[in-house]
Design brief:
- The complex is a heterodimer of chains A (330) and B (289).
- Chain A is built from 12 helices and no strands.
- Chain A is mainly alpha-helical and 330 residues long.
- In chain A, α8 packs antiparallel against α10.
- A 4-stranded antiparallel β-sheet of chain B has the order 1-2-4-3.
- In chain B, α2 packs antiparallel against α3, α3 packs across α5 and α10 packs across α13.
- The termini of chain B are far apart.
- The chains are: A mainly alpha (330), B alpha+beta (289).
- At the A-B interface, α1, α2, α3, α8 and α10 of A face β2, α3, α5, α6 and α8 of B.
Chain lengths: 330, 289
């Protein structure tokens, strides 16, 4: 058995190393920015610190020494085992492959979200077309009037780039915010996503129906057709991810609720990142292309191309790599 | 999913059931989560690949609220600067540029609301300016640094934690969790820890120094456990920061117990605990010397 040193002797003999490690760690800059000698020095100091920590516990040195060593070891551990927090290639892979795959693997919540959005959308649309009464029950008259007025003018004047940028900013703030909220509130056992999907479906349907019954149907549909493939799909994807999150808390598959949530988390994160990207694209289209003075047939042709692109992307992206992997492993 | 479950008429199910009832009858009552109860403390233990366990102090709601408020002020400040710039730029410009400025402000608002935390937690390894000031850091449950995806998830879920206002849901969930995790932390598998830098202080010395007469009453080897000596040590470190009456009151809670065990008497409980501490460490120093 080694002779036990007194705490003061122990501290005196080791303090220099601890101070050196403390200085090297600084405020926690990433280690890879430092030169090789420093990195190996930090690693060596960390290992000896681990020994010191165990020795101080075994020898029952005072509690504050243990806390000091704990805190220092924690900082050194965080620095040494620091993974690269942000990896550009994996973000590219996410959009090329992982996001559509995650969505296809979780098509059920997505299908439910589609139904929750588009059924109220149709009800609102048809109801508002049928009578103004339903529209007025859903939204105040002043809002509806404003909408009808906004779409009463055609696009002949177009919109200049400045106003386009202004509106794009608004759409990013408003629409991406709606989608993120629609997703996040899904953690309350899915109730939040349920509400936001139904509400936004009904809202959009009623507005479209009211504007149509006011006689500006061609305008609003021509305006919406450009960005809708991205925007509505993304909102539904976000809502579906929220529903999936809520459902993982209900059907835990034998895990704890937290464990079940953690298991679903990677797929959910991929879907919400993908939805976010689609919403940014939608905001750009909505700010610059949708209100432009381009002729309606061109807008509809573009809308058709966008819709095809979105469908093909979500249905096919990332399938090739799957096949390769399957053929590699018998 | 349904297919993989054992059918209710099969034998397997009955065996399982009887096993379960056996376990129920013979196991001590378990907590709801079937996991060993964590001690009621604000620390969490992490085991490293070096097989060293070290403890993090989990940050409580108060510290985190302070950091949040600081971040909120900072975000408000940045937004005001943007607003001022936009207003200054808009004076001489036409309507169109004004609209663009409005868009820029909304874009800034969006980035500040949804991107601020993710950005800083990603580049500063789990810290925002507010967390930095209050020595907080977000780490994963395994003690590893946060990555982009984790940060994104925990910060998107602020929208749920915030409901119905002022983080009411988040606070409620934190209060129910031993590691103060809000919904975002639960989903992303993260905890917020404090990184307060402790200083190694010299061992507390008795003032005035113990007299030979005082020490004579104490046995050479104290019949006290390591934990008890730790508790005394912790207490003595607080002496001087408490009111003398409160010190005495606290010391009085254990002093009679220890006095009975060492067979001594005391006038002041605080002084008595100091003497015990002195004797314990004097003993250790002698042994090493």
């Amino acid at each position: 058995m080694t002779t036990q040193r007194s705490q003061d002797e122990f501290v005196a003999s080791r303090k220099r190393d601890w101070d050196e490690l403390d200085a090297l760690l600084g405020t926690g800059e990433p280690l890879h920015l430092k030169d090789g000698a420093t990195i190996s020095r930090v690693a060596a100091l960390y290992r000896s610190l681990c020994t010191d920590l165990m020795r101080s516990r075994a020898a029952r040195y005072t509690v504050d020494l243990a806390s000091y060593l704990d805190a220092l070891a924690g900082r050194a551990h965080a620095t040494l085992y620091g993974a690269q927090p942000f990896h550009m290639p994996s973000l590219v892979a996410l959009f090329r492959r992982d996001f559509p795959r995650a969505l296809r693997a979780n098509w059920r919540p997505f299908a439910v979200a589609c139904a929750l959005f588009f059924v109220p959308f149709l009800i609102g649309l048809l109801g508002a077309l049928g009578s103004d009464e339903l529209a007025l029950k859903v939204l105040p008259g002043s809002v509806l009037e404003g909408m009808a007025n906004a779409y009463s003018k055609g696009f002949d004047a177009g919109r200049d780039a400045g106003a386009g940028a202004g509106m794009a900013g608004f759409y990013v703030y408003n629409n991406v915010g709606i989608a993120f909220r629609c997703f996040a509130t899904g953690i309350l056992f899915g109730t939040g996503s349920l509400f936001f999907l139904l509400y936004n479906g009904l809202y959009t349907g009623v507005v479209a129906g009211y504007v149509m019954s006011a006689g500006h149907g061609a305008n609003i549909w021509t305006f919406m057709c450009g960005h809708a493939p991205f925007e509505l799909t993304a909102i539904v994807i976000a809502g579906g991810a929220g529903l999936q999150m809520g459902y993982s808390l209900v059907d835990t598959g034998g895990l704890t609720r937290t464990g079940s949530l953690r298991r679903a988390a990677p797929a959910i994160t991929r879907q919400i990142l993908g939805a976010g990207m689609m919403l940014l694209i939608a905001a750009l289209i909505e700010g610059f292309w949708s209100p432009s003075s381009a002729p309606a047939p061109l807008k509809w042709a573009v809308s058709f191309v966008f819709t095809t692109l979105v469908v093909l992307y979500l249905a096919l992206a990332g399938r090739g790599a799957d096949r390769r992997r399957e053929s590699a492993s018998p | 999913m349904l297919k993989s479950r054992p059918s209710s008429d099969g034998g397997a199910a009955t065996i399982q059931d009887s096993r379960r009832s056996f376990a129920r009858a013979h196991a001590p009552p378990m907590t709801k989560r079937d996991a060993p109860r964590e001690p009621l403390d604000t620390t969490t233990e992490i085991e490293t690949p070096e097989h060293v366990r070290f403890r993090y102090h989990v940050a409580g709601p108060a510290n985190r609220a302070l950091a949040y408020l600081l971040d909120l002020l900072l975000r408000g400040g940045v937004l005001m600067v943007f607003g001022l710039l936009a207003a200054l730029g808009g004076i001489n410009a036409g309507e169109a540029t004004k609209a663009a400025h409005g868009g820029v402000i909304l874009l800034a608002l969006f980035v500040l609301e949804w991107g601020y935390y993710v950005f800083f937690e990603t580049i500063w390894s789990g810290r925002t300016p507010g967390k930095r000031v209050f020595h907080l850091r977000v780490v994963t449950e395994g003690g590893h640094p946060l990555r982009f995806g984790d940060s994104l998830l925990r910060n998107l879920l602020r929208a749920a934690d915030f409901l119905p206002g002022a983080y009411a849901v988040g606070l409620l969930v934190m209060g129910r969790d031993a590691r103060f995790r809000r919904l975002g932390d639960l989903a992303a598998g993260t905890i917020v820890v404090t990184e307060a830098r402790h200083a190694v202080t010299a061992r507390s010395r008795l003032d005035p120094p113990p007299t030979a007469a005082e020490l004579r009453g104490l046995p050479q080897r104290l019949p006290l456990s390591g934990e008890e000596l730790d508790a005394i040590d912790l207490f003595l470190r607080r002496v001087g920061r408490l009111a003398p009456a409160r010190e005495e009151e606290l010391a009085e809670m254990v002093a009679p117990l220890f006095a009975r065990r060492v067979g001594g008497r005391y006038k002041s409980a605080t002084r008595f605990l100091g003497l015990l501490h002195h004797r314990a460490h004097e003993h250790r120093e002698k042994k090493s010397g």
